[in-house]
Amino acid sequence: MSYQIELRHLRYFLAVAEELHFRKAADRLYISQPGLSRQIKQMENDLGVILFDRHNRKVVLTKTGEYLKKELQLNLKQLEDILDHAKLIQAGRKGQLKIGYVGSAMQNIIPDLLIKYREDHPDVVFSLKEMENQNQIDELLSFGIDIGFMRLEDVPKHLEKQTVLSDIFCVVLPEDHPINSKNFKSMAQFKEETFILFDPNYSASYYEKVMQIFKDSGFMPAVSHLTIHATSIYKLVANHFGISIVPKSLQNDAVKGVKFIDLNNIKQRTELSMVWNTGNRNPVLLQALDVMRKMKRKKA
């Protein structure tokens, strides 16, 4: 059986499948609506299937269309990565590694990885993007990134995770706060304070762990601000909008106006994990995982 399907047909189909609206899909693709309709109809005729149920005011995917959308969202992305990889080889590069990360991973983990990796593989392009946990999960599942560094307990099927850092917590206080590392006894000393915390949407499991610290200390905090950036937390704390709790890996003694107290005597720890898709065939990813494992063994 011979199909006259081209890559553009697949992109056209995905645009309509995601928009469920021919005009919006045509605008997104910068082509005319009648032209897009003809291309989709031609694709259906060539394959001998019906991909959309067309009604007067709406477009609905058939079961066949739903299957094709799901598979193409995964496999078309991999095909595009293969073509991009070929272009990098032509330009004298050996490949690309796309990394998603939460902010604390950029303190030491990722810089150490890039330095070690470049020692043996200098011709690799790195793409780095700070992302929330769930966005990283979504991008890993769709092969939008190759590896993620995040804080979470469990990962979906097809993803693998490995702990790269077990972190204690620390309290962040304004520099002139009366409590310091010498007179600090327990978190209960802060029960009348307001707190600035990482948004639970950034990492629900991390937020729950922080809440457990408060529960174990006999109080629930008054939360004045939620944010996703440590720099925002430090700025707010320095200006007396509240105090905070962060992983020790985010501690930065160079930040002006704040001070840190390590919480060594509590049971809670937060783990930073390296996560990847077991179906990802990017050879650069396999090399990076090997480098990370060697780094972890040396630290152990």
From TrEMBL:
Q: Name one Pfam family in it.
A: HTH_1
Instruction: Read off the InterPro entries from this record.
Output: LysR_HTH_N, LysR_subst-bd, WH-like_DNA-bd_sf, WH_DNA-bd_sf
Tree of life domain: Bacteria
* Residue stretches spanning the membrane: none
Q: Coiled-coil intervals in this record?
A: none
Sorted alphabetically, the keyword list is: DNA-binding, Transcription, Transcription regulation
All copies of domain HTH lysR-type, residue ranges: 5-62
Q: Which family does it belong to?
A: Belongs to the LysR transcriptional regulatory family.
Question: Which PANTHER family does this chain map to?
Answer: HCA OPERON TRANSCRIPTIONAL ACTIVATOR HCAR, TRANSCRIPTIONAL DUAL REGULATOR HCAR-RELATED
The protein, known as: LysR family transcriptional regulator
Source species of the chain: Gaetbulibacter aestuarii
Taxonomic lineage of this organism?
Bacteria, Pseudomonadati, Bacteroidota, Flavobacteriia, Flavobacteriales
